[in-house]
Amino acid sequence: MPQRRARSSQGGFSFIEVLIGIVILGIVAGGVFMGFAASSAQIAKGRLDTVASKMANGRLDTIREMDYDDVGIIGGNPVGVLKAAESAVVSGITYRVETDVTYVDDPTPGRSRSYINYKRIVVTVTPQVASGRPVTVVSQMAPPNVAAIRGTA
Q: Between the chain's N and C termini, which has fewer beta carbons within 10 Å?
């Protein structure tokens, strides 16, 4: 009669051990993938903000180079040559550029009140995508000084 050998412990992995390893690997890989996806979204959002900021500052620089009397909105108060809103496309993304110009009354103590001391310029650029946030830059523009025109300032 043949002898039966006792089952010895095997050196390989069982099916359950392999399945548990695959599940753990899947969880770790999913976490790494989610980290890459989140960082990619942040990079894209940063790009949108950077482009919007550059557009707003560029628009403001263009306005600063204009004559004081030309700085205003077409049909607005103050009247000028600027459009209140327009769109621009950069790298396939549409940005809405809004410009607002208002008079500012900044009374000087001891002087007569003129109600118009300078112009406040607000440029807002908004990417037209779901994750786009508006970027706003503000500046003031003073009228030419009489003393500066006479050369005594």
A: N
